[in-house]
TrEMBL record:
Coiled coil: none annotated. The chain crosses the membrane at residues 360-380. PANTHER family: ALPHA-GALACTOSIDASE NEW3 DOMAIN-CONTAINING PROTEIN, HYPOTHETICAL MEMBRANE PROTEIN, CONSERVED. Residues 267-341 form the Alpha-galactosidase NEW3 domain. This is Alpha-galactosidase NEW3 domain-containing protein. It comes from Paenibacillus yonginensis. Pfam families: NPCBM_assoc (PF10633). Keywords: Membrane, Signal, Transmembrane, Transmembrane helix. Residues 1-25 form the signal peptide.
Length: 386
């Protein structure tokens, strides 16, 4: 009986030691698994559709034994794509020594076609988890965008209008866009990429390219506002834009005599009237014209009318200039410079004026010569007989 009791006690002791050892053997593994922690300093990001959010994540082992874990990301739908990497390669499982940290990267792609809002994710390393949030800052699209920094330009008819446009490919495939402009006849529209003229351009998925647009109006274009539609087309995706060119016209004028003869004559102290013509040879209206002159000393010029309010493109108006020479002017050629001026343009007409001697002074000279001859003849007759 005593032997039987001893055997039973020994069996119970062996069983207890076995069970105790099993429990003790399982305890370190459980502790090691629960000792993993995921850490990143930035738990909530803001991003636009098509952007990639990148996280640097630490997996920390607080246990006393090496631990390994499967790495994964729980997303709300399959449109969100992600990549887990370390050392330049994709990973799915990490081992960490006790008391150490392993760092890996998480790249999360925001879908192009997505609603604006707040999206939550859970990064997992077995039992360890890390909640992440991405705030999508704007409504997403799945299309092409064609936008301009400044769609309106102003200049003269002989100016070259330069616009800067951005072509964005908000699709998942590389696109080759054909570029076109619906300008009126005579307008020269050129697309440039990297200073080279192009008719098409390739854009990678979720990328953009900056295009320069050079616009030159026709030579005889009238002042006004001109809209030019633009398009970028690739397969079933098209983006449209519009530019506006405000042509103020060119300012130019011709100022001359009615017969284009720039010479005349006048007697000293006398006046000479000239009919002058101001012609608007530009494409913009000339306004507030006035007249002035540059004359020799003691000469003067007056204009009638003294000013003109406006002259339309292609039209002309007359003005009469009265040139008065100095009474002390000697015979010879003089230059009288006449100027027509507006706020935006001016023109000169240089008139060569020949001063002629008065006929009266000619007769006076002849009379003096006759008197001198008569005096000599008288003296010769009177004293010649002696």
């Amino acid at each position: 009986m005593l032997v039987s009791l001893r055997k039973a006690a020994l069996s119970i002791m062996v069983l207890f030691i076995a069970l105790g050892g099993s429990v003790l053997a399982e305890t370190p593994r459980a502790a090691a698994a629960g000792a993993l922690e995921l850490y990143t300093p930035y738990l909530e990001w803001s991003a636009a559709p098509g952007e990639t959010v990148s996280y640097s994540v630490d997996l920390v082992n607080h246990g006393s034994a090496t631990a390994s874990a499967d790495i994964s990301l729980e997303t709300q739908n399959s449109d969100w794509k992600y990549n887990l990497s370390a050392g330049g390669r994709e990973i799915s499982r990490i081992a960490v020594k006790p008391g150490e940290t392993q760092t890996f990267s998480l790249d999360l792609d925001v879908p192009l076609k997505i609603n604006k809002g707040r999206y939550s994710f859970t990064l997992k390393a077995d039992q360890a988890s890390l909640p992440l949030v991405v705030n999508v800052s704007e409504q997403g699209t799945f299309k092409t965008e064609f936008t301009l920094d400044q769609a309106n330009m102003e200049g003269y008819s002989d100016s070259t209008f330069t616009y800067s446009a951005v072509l964005r490919n908000r699709t998942l495939q590389k696109q080759t866009y054909a570029l076109s402009a619906g300008a009126e006849d005579g307008w020269d529209v050129r697309f440039q990429l990297d200073s080279n003229s192009v008719t098409s351009v390739e854009v990678d998925p979720n990328s953009e390219k900056t295009i320069s647009i050079q616009v030159k109006p026709p030579e005889q274009v009238k002042a006004g506002t001109y809209k030019i539609p633009l398009s970028a087309t690739s397969g079933d995706t098209t983006a449209n834009a519009s530019i506006e060119a405000v042509v103020t016209g060119t300012y130019d004028m011709k100022f001359s005599t009615s017969d284009d003869v720039l010479s005349t004559d006048v007697k000293a102290g006398a006046e000479r009237k000239l009919t002058l013509v101001v012609q608007n040879t530009g494409s913009a209206e000339l306004q507030d014209l006035s007249f002035s002159s540059n004359t020799p000393t003691d000469w003067s010029v007056s204009f009638e009318p003294s000013s003109i309010s406006s002259i339309a493109p292609g039209e002309s108006k007359q003005v009469q200039a009265t040139i008065k020479s100095s009474s002390k002017a000697l015979s010879g050629d003089y230059v009288v410079s006449l100027t027509a001026s507006s706020a935006s343009k001016s023109a000169n007409a240089d008139i060569r004026v020949t001063v002629k001697s008065s006929v009266l002074w000619g007769w006076v000279g002849i009379l003096i010569i006759l008197v001198v001859i008569a005096g000599i003849y008288y003296l010769f007759r009177k004293f010649g007989r002696r």
